[in-house]
Amino acid sequence: MDTPLGSVWVEVADRAVVASGWGAAQGGDDPVLRTALDEVVAYFDRRLDRFTVPIRPQASGLSGRVLDALSAIPFGETRTYGDLSKDLGAPAQAIGRACGSNPVPILIPCHRVLGATSLGGFSAPGGIEAKVWLLGHEGAAGLLI
After folding, report:
1. Which residue range(s) make up the domain with 108?
2. Catalytic hit among 5, 106, 110, 119
3. CA triplet 97, 89, 105: central angle to 5 degrees?
4. How many domains does the chain contain in total?
5. Of residues 124 and 64, which shows the higher confidence score?
6. Which residue, 24, 51, 94, 111, shows the most beta carbons closer than 10 Å to its own?
7. Residue 54: inside a domain, yes or no?
8. Would you call 99 a catalytic residue per the annotation?
9. Each residue of 4-46: pLDDT tens digit?
10. Which of 68, 94, 96 is nearest to 80 (CA)?
11. Percent of the chain beyond pLDDT 90?
12. Transmembrane stretches, by residue range (predicted)?
């Protein structure tokens, strides 16, 4: 599907979203996929601030805990890698690696995590500019000024 940040794809397996990413992909006729795509459209149209479609990425250990922590960050709010480091008892660098390998960007909001003195990174085409756009879209841009 097309979004303000370019094409986004969503993958569904066993009645849940398991992955998403940047670029084009083939569609399908799955009710969970239709719901996920409808919710992504609603998110970009500012009609949705929390995804309700089931999301179950294949992640375990620290990566799984980080993805759960990312999912708990409310729309329009941010955390730092250091905040998550303290909460999860893991080094900030490990938190950053887990964020960078997020298999479900946008639906699991890794864009809401910032460095202590910088924006950190982002996997979307456009990198940091896309992250800034998403934070602005969510009303968190005041944190960037």
Report:
1. 61-140
2. 110
3. 35
4. 2
5. 64
6. 111
7. no
8. no
9. 998 999 999 999 999 999 988 777 789 999 999 999 999 999 9
10. 96
11. 77
12. none
